[in-house]
Amino acid sequence: MNQFLAIICGWLVVVTCLLLFLDLVSRGIGLPIQGLAVLSVFVMIAVIYLGLARCEEEEENVRVELVLDRLPDRGRKYTLLFTDIVQIIVIALFIIEMINNTYISVTTFEAEAGTVQFPIGPVKILMVIGLIFYWIQIIIKFIQRLSAGPEAAETVSGNIPGSGR
Q1: 11: burial class by Cβ within 10 Å (0-12, 13-18, 19+)?
Q2: At 104, phi and psi to the nearest 5?
Q3: What is residue 119's three-state secondary structure?
Q4: How far apart are CA 65 and CA 70, in angstroms?
Q5: What pTM did the predictor assign?
Q6: How many degrees, rounded to 5, is the angle at CA 39 between CA 99 and CA 126?
Q7: Are 84 and 153 in contact (CB under 8 A)?
Q8: Is 86 exposed, middle or buried (0-12, 13-18, 19+ CB in 10 A)?
Q9: What are the tens digits of pLDDT across the range 123-165?
């Protein structure tokens, strides 16, 4: 599923570029199309949230490894397990709050203030979907780390042994 979401994100980036290009050209010829910039921001938000799970799966999310790289295998594994637990709890709280916020947005027809009022609810729904897949991926990674031996901490954490990564 993460691969499918990554493909969707790729196409959404193309849509964002086309929207921004169309906005630039329309303004350049003196016939601006209202709302294109806001719409491109909404599409980019969808890209970011729907891409979180794939980045987590491939260990491409930002992480400070200054201390992690200096720990022995067992220490690295336990540190990663601890950070996974913290992530699982924090992202679960984000999801709960985002679901509540999305519900309010959808039921009150919350819209972006501007010359063209775009409803915010659909974007927030995509954010919730992205966060749920991200949370699931964190749980999967936690289970993989938990079941792996301490010597496997490098490969489970995304580091390739001997590569200096």
Answers
A1: exposed
A2: -60, -45
A3: strand
A4: 8
A5: 0.83
A6: 25
A7: no
A8: exposed
A9: 999 999 999 999 999 999 999 999 986 655 554 544 433 434 3
